[in-house]
Amino acid sequence: RIHLMAGRVPRGADRAAVAGEMETTFIENLRYAADLLAQEDMTGLVEPINSRLTDPRYFLNTPHQAAAILEKVGRPNLKLQLDIFHCQIMDGNLSRNLETYFPLIGHIQIAQVPGRHEPDSPGELNFPYIFELLESLGYAGYVGCEYAPKGDTVEGLGWLRSYWESRGLQPGGTEKATE
């Protein structure tokens, strides 16, 4: 899997004025990339990145826009990389968005909102609920942790051990042996 970036609205350009041309170019580039990736049995991922905090000029910024573009591209080896952080900032409504766009999702990334820290840090999102929803939808892929740890990396992964233990699992996500 490889992230295929959408590019940025040129400095000084009006987003609405260049949107059609940018979308056309992006679609053409995605078709070209998808065909090359198919030869290697690879999947391309498109990720909406929020334009409110992270990158005001990034062209692709909502899952709705990404879904429409993926439909126009029409290649089965292109999927949505849904970053929960960006989705919450741009649209909220995470449960509905996960359910709606689930057939398109090829990868999930997480970070708490607003600080972009660990999932168990204070913030807007209830990650145990989100993880259970993903499981109920049948998501079997990886979940990328794209956050800035408040401490060091090992400390920043402590939430995962606690989450596994709350689910009766041991590190690595395997079931604990019953005695």
Automatic annotation (TrEMBL):
- List the molecular function annotations (GO) for this entry: hydroxypyruvate isomerase activity
What's a BP term from Gene Ontology annotated to this protein?
A: glyoxylate metabolic process
Does the keyword section mention Isomerase? yes
* Record has Nucleotide-binding as a keyword: no
- Domain Xylose isomerase-like TIM barrel, by residue range, is 2-162
Its keywords, alphabetically, are: Isomerase
| A Pfam entry, by short name | AP_endonuc_2
Q: What is this protein called?
A: HYI isomerase
| Record organism | Chauna torquata
